[in-house]
Structures are given as C-alpha cells and as structure tokens.
Amino acid sequence: MLSLKSWSAFVLVLSLTFFGCRKDHEETCKIETIKVAALLSKTGEWSNLGISSEAALQIGIQEINQDFENKGMPYRFELSVFDTELVPSIALQKMEYLASNNFRLVIGPQSSSEMAAVKSIADSLGILVVSQGSTASSLSIANDALYRYVPGDQIEGAAMANTLITAGKQALVTLARNDVGNVGLQNSLNTNFSNLGGTVVSAGTYDPLATDYSVSLAAVKNQIIQYSASYSSTQIAVYLASFDEAVALFNQASGDPVLSSVNWYGGDGFIKNPALLNDPIAAQFAFATSFFSPEFGLPASSQNIWSPLLTSIFNACGQDADAFTLSAYDAIKVMAKVIEQNSGIPATGSSLFNSFMTLSNSHVGATGSIALNANGDRANGSFNYWGLAFANGVYTWNLVGQSE
Q1: β-pairing, 383-391 with 394-402?
Q2: What pLDDT score was predicted for residue 2?
Q3: Which residue has the higher pLDDT, 14 or 239?
Q4: What is the pLDDT of residues 73-87, one digit of tens each?
Q5: Residue 289 to residue 138: CA distance in whole angstroms
Q6: CB 249 within 8 Å of CB 275
Q7: What pTM was computed for the model?
Q8: For 269-276, what is the mean pLDDT?
Q9: Is the per-residue pLDDT at 283 higher than 50?
Q10: 154-296+383-402: what CATH class?
Q11: CATH for 22-151+301-372, among 3.40.50.2300, 3.40.30.10, 3.30.70.2730, 3.30.70.270?
Q12: Pick from 29, 224, 296, 391: most CB atoms within 10 A?
C-alpha cells in the first residue's frame, strides 16, 4: 500500500503528465528560456520600421508565451533588442555579441548591407537570421542562414517598372544610395524597365554618409535635359532608391526647375517616412513631383489578423506599422512553431533552417501566406504606393495606387 507521502508524489507526477507546465504549477517544472534577439534601427535611419518592429515583436512574444503556457509547454521566449542604427559595422558588433552569448534566433537586421555584414557569423554558427526589410538579390543564396520575409528587389523592380510603363513613362533616370540593398533595387528597376521597352540611364550612386548631393543631382538634371530632346516631361521620370537622406536630397533639388519638372519615385526604404512630413521644403518638392514609393501590401484575406495588430502597434509605440513590420511578427510566430515541433531549438544549423523553411511555407500570418523560394526569400507580394497629400496646410502620407 502506498504511503500518504508516496501517494502525493504519484498524484504530482500524474498531474504534470496531463497538464504540463502550466502557470499554476510552473514551480514544479523546469522552464526553458528561448533567447530571441532583434537587430533593429531604433535611433538611426529607417527608425520608424525599427521602432514599430520592436512593438510588434513584444506583442508576438506575449501571445507566444501565453500559448506555451496554455499548452503546458516548458518554454518561454525572451526578447533582447539591439539598436544597429542601420549601420553594418554596428550590426556586426551586435552579432558578435549574440554569437558569444549563444543566441540562435535573430529577427532583423533591416537592411541588406547589415545582413551582408552578419552573414558569415550566422552561417558558421548556425544562427537563424530573418530580416523584415532586406531585399538585395545578391543575398539570395540557397542553404545559408539568412531568410527574408519580404519580396526581394526582383519582385519590387518588376512591379515598379510595370507601374511606370503603364503610367506612360518612357525614359527613366535612376539614382541610388551606395549600399547593396538600394543598388539592388536600382539595378532591378533598370533591367525590368528596359525589358518593357523603356529607355533607362543610371545617374550612379552616392555615398551613404554624403550630405551634399549636388554632383548626383547635376547628373540627374543633365540626363533629364538630354531626354527632353526626344520625350515630353510627362514621359520622363526619376527613381531614387534611398533611406532617410532623401529628405536632404529633396531640399537640394527643390530650387531647380528642371529637376522639379518631372515625376519622382522611390524605393521601399523611404516608405511613409515621417521626417519628410516635418520638412516643408522637401515635402513640397515630393508633392509637386507626385513622388510615391512602394510598400509591401497586406492581403485582404488576413485583415482579421493585421487590422487589430496595426492598431495595437501604434498604441504601443506611436508609429504606423506596415507589412514590413508585420513580417517581423510573422517571423517570430514561425520561430515559436519551430520550438514546439522540435521540443526546443534544433541542435544543428541545418536542422534549424530546414524546420524554419518548412514551417514558413505552411504558415498563414498577418502578411498572408508565407511562401519562400529555394533560397529562403519571400516569393510573392504586391505593393501599395504611398505619396503625399496636402490639406489645411498639412502634408500627410496617402495611398495613391497599387501594383497590378
């Protein structure tokens, strides 16, 4: 016959067998902390995405940990956020810290230049890195540690080229910030616009640390003047692949009647940039030239997920979120599925990557169905185009169109 003490122990084991590590008896279970790092630009350029991504990840982790608890699973996610300022060398420093502290799951960094900087460490140590902003096709490599949850430059370039041709543009001048992501967007648009029968000339690139854009703007202006011999101003366009520095560039371009005579367009790194709204000279130039840039679109089929999330993120951080932000949310949700399916983080990098790839391709999240190509990059996506509206003396970002 069992003693009272033995019987109590038996009941405890039985209860844990049936109920797992729920909150009311977590003290009897060993909870494993799953460390997740986020490499985000919180104080540098493109900080609107970094700030909103942190809020989205915090919401996601709260939901994940509640789900683990409800299922009696002995895991809890713990988020550590590191500010990269959108600087590749800082991203590398933070990645070195993560490597030395045994992090295996990373959201971000946002830009392709940062992704390139952390790639060798991630590959060598089997650290899963999932970006919500990187688009460079040069980083589209099979069987590596880098994954991108947003459409790459080839998809975005094709969409923009089609939109410009449909709008009657026949001659294009392109200019890009000299980094792997923005140059990738420039090259993709050049190729796709040319393939559709348009004429395109690159005005080159400018240094990311530049503050004087007079040389680049002179190259753009000279090409517009040359085009004007064969095309009307409505047939000529300028495309700028940039981050926040577009505000300063627009300021310097604003006083030139030639530069102001044609339509301007941008890449995803300047989407709904808040700094533009607070600079009346740059905003007036963008408004006068009908500037817009593409935002990875959110599908109507997932509106029940993304609509309340957008509200919650704004309430948490005061920043408008978008599909790039919600790609970070989707990524951490899939990471949770990896933990659940594998009873923790898989031991090897290849096992971790294969599990993440498989579960990504079966996941439907805030950004819709996550379909990755063989290189671990999002294989689908449409775009919303955001330009400026002006009313009652105030500029605001406004949805002006969509890709086909």
Answers
A1: antiparallel
A2: 42
A3: 239
A4: 999 999 999 999 999
A5: 31
A6: no
A7: 0.91
A8: 95
A9: yes
A10: alpha beta
A11: 3.40.50.2300
A12: 296
Domains of the chain, by residue range, sit at: 22-151+301-372, 154-296+383-402
Q: Tell me whether domains 22-151+301-372 and 154-296+383-402 share a fold.
A: yes
pLDDT in tens, 356-390: 999 999 999 999 999 999 999 999 899 999 999 99
List the beta bridge partners of residue 133. Answer: none
Buried b (16+ CB within 10 A) or exposed e, 280-310: eebbbbbeebebbbbbbbbbeebeebbeebb
Q: Give me the residues paired with residue 384 across strands.
A: 295, 402
Residue type, 71: K
Mean pLDDT, the chain, rounded, equals 94
User: What mean pLDDT do residues 277-290 have?
Assistant: 98
Q: How confident is the model at residue 24 (pLDDT cuts 50, 70, 90)?
A: low
Secondary structure string (H, E, C) spanning the chain: CCCHHHHHHHHHHHHHHHHCCCHHHHHHCCCEEEEEEEEECCCCCCHHHHHHHHHHHHHHHHHHHHHHHHCCCCEEEEEEEEECCCCHHHHHHHHHHHHHCCCCEEECCCCHHHHHHHHHHHHHHCCEEEECCCCCHHHCCCCCCEEEEEECHHHHHHHHHHHHHHCCCCEEEEEEECCHHHHHHHHHHHHHHHHCCCEEEEEEEECCCCCCCHHHHHHHHHHHHHHCCCCCHHHEEEEEECCCCHHHHHHHHCCCCCHHHCEEEECHHHCCCHHHHCCHHHHHHHHHCCCEEEEECCCHHHHHHHHHHHHHHHHHHCCCCCHHHHHHHHHHHHHHHHHHHHCCCCCCHHHHHHHHHHHHCCCEECCEECCECCCCEECCCCEEEEEEEEECCEEEEEEEEECC
Residues 93 and 166: their CA atoms lie apart, in Å, by 45
